[in-house]
Amino acid sequence: MAPRKVVIRPAPGRGKGYGMFANELIHKGERIYPLRRLRMSRSQCEAFVSAHMPATSKLLLMYGWGEGESYVLPLGVEVFVNHCASRPNSVNGVAQRDIRPGEEILENYAAYDTCEPWYIALAKRFKVWLACR
Fold first, then answer.
1. Closest alpha carbon to 57 in 130, 112, 127
2. Which CATH superfamily is domain 3-125 in?
3. How far is 41 from 93, CA to CA, in rounded Å?
4. DSSP state of 101
5. What is the pLDDT of residues 29-80, one digit of tens each?
6. For helices 42-50 and 54-63, what crossing angle results, to 10°?
7. pTM
């Protein structure tokens, strides 16, 4: 994927912050962005989150997810992909249909937020909302 395929800019709507938008036509099946992720064990995640200030811990829990006994944290531009359960056009950085220039890249977070019981408990401890609840 060439970097010019997408652009990061303010997203429309109250409180959305920034979003990722197609800068040119992205075809169905095309990789939109590379997956760059940090993986750590459940125990490492619990220790790491507990060692940080509550605001930092909330961010780590909001942007990451539990996957079995592992914690996964995205490290690349995928953190700018916003959630949309009703009309996602991407899954894990792959276009599910043609995406027109100017269109926001949207994913259904629940599709890969497995919500392991240990992760739900950790998120509740820090009062973090998860998409799969």
1. 127
2. SET domain (2.170.270.10)
3. 24
4. T
5. 999 998 899 999 999 999 988 898 888 888 888 888 888 899 999 898 888 9
6. 150
7. 0.78
